[in-house]
Design goal:
Helix content is about 50%, strand content about 10%. By secondary structure, it is mainly alpha-helical.
């Protein structure tokens, strides 16, 4: 069995450049573009990076109404799960 051991220098480079955060943000951008298209995906991504008064605001374009949600709550994670990862995607409507 082999284990990947990072040297001190590798750990410092990894932390100093925030490579993990960069990679996660890149994946998020790709998922947004895949689901919403290039322009709407970029607009949503930029909106998620910036916030005013503790809120993210996604203007009309991707949605028929303006979407506003809290920055420091679980709203951003739920948004990503529902719209980017499509964890709650339904191919059909349940019978009534």
């Amino acid at each position: 069995m082999t284990f990947a051991v990072k040297t001190f220098a590798e750990k410092m480079i990894y932390k100093s450049f925030h490579l993990r955060k960069f990679g996660l943000q890149t994946i998020k951008l790709i998922n947004l573009i895949r689901f919403f298209g290039v322009f709407n995906g970029l607009e949503i991504f930029i909106s998620l990076l910036s916030s005013k008064n503790g809120y993210h605001k996604i203007k009309k374009g991707a949605f028929s109404n303006t979407v506003l949600f809290r920055k420091d709550q679980s709203d951003t994670f739920i948004f990503e799960q529902v719209f980017c990862e499509q964890q709650y995607s339904f191919d059909y409507l349940p019978a009534e």
